[in-house]
Amino acid sequence: MTDYIKRIMENDTIPDHLKKVLHDEMYHGIEVSNLSVMLAEEMGESPAFCRDLEIAGMLHDIGKLKLIDYIFSEEDTLVIEHMKYVRQHSLYSYKILREAGYPDNILRAVFYHHENYDGSGYPDNLRGGNIPWMARILRTCDVFAALTSNRSYRKAFDTKQAVEIMIEEVSNYDMKVFLTFQRILHNGKFKGIQELRRNISPLQKEQLMLFEKEALN
Questions:
Q1: Using one digit for the tens of pLDDT, what is the confidence trace for 146-183?
Q2: Burial environment of residue 131 by CB neighbours within 10 A (0 to 12, 13 to 18, 19 or more)
Q3: Rounded to an integer, what distance in angstroms lies between the CA atom of residue 111 and that of residue 134?
Q4: Residue 1: how many CB atoms within 10 A of its CB?
Q5: How far apart (Å, rounded) are the C-alpha atoms in residues 15 and 147?
Q6: Which residues pair with 151 in a beta bridge?
Q7: CA neighbours closer than 13 Å in the CB half-sphere of residue 42
Q8: Which of 91, 108, 114, 183 is most buried as measured by Cβ atoms within 10 A of its Cβ?
Q9: Which of left, alpha, beta for 119 (phi over 0: left; psi -120 to 50: alpha)?
Q10: Is the separation of the CB atoms in 100 and 106 below 8 Å?
């Protein structure tokens, strides 16, 4: 655990029931951010693009903190009702970042990171090239990071299992991004999900401050 995240976890003003979710979402952001930048660099994107993508990956799920009572409740909830709240998190992430003054390209990447290439995603059922390029990269990295992390209802899949699951749903992803993702997994650049979460850049640390702010709201 990094010193900054450790300090946040030891902040007594943050409610205990929020701390595990906060911990998991910060590390998920680090994983998605690092993997997204890895893909973007492999595809020859500019340093400015990679910097903005690094921020978007870090903060894409911050809106979940607004929905903690719904998304992470252990009470029995109708699946359709649960999904209604889950699908609001990208909108809340967008609103948090807009209020904080982040630029439009980052806002759009965060808002649309659950759009699927075949048009089956949300919030607007965008298809193909209508989905912002940055959001298409986030989509692939977000799914992989989620599959390879422990959840309350299942253990983490290993890399091979996660990729097999993603291949079964390959129509969800931009093929250029997905093929680059596959290449990174096999060319030695990817060292494992744990390695992704250990490498926290100064830019990513700056974004952690927004997580802490939202946890205290």
A1: 999 887 678 999 999 999 999 999 999 999 999 999 99
A2: buried
A3: 11
A4: 13
A5: 27
A6: 154
A7: 22
A8: 114
A9: left
A10: no
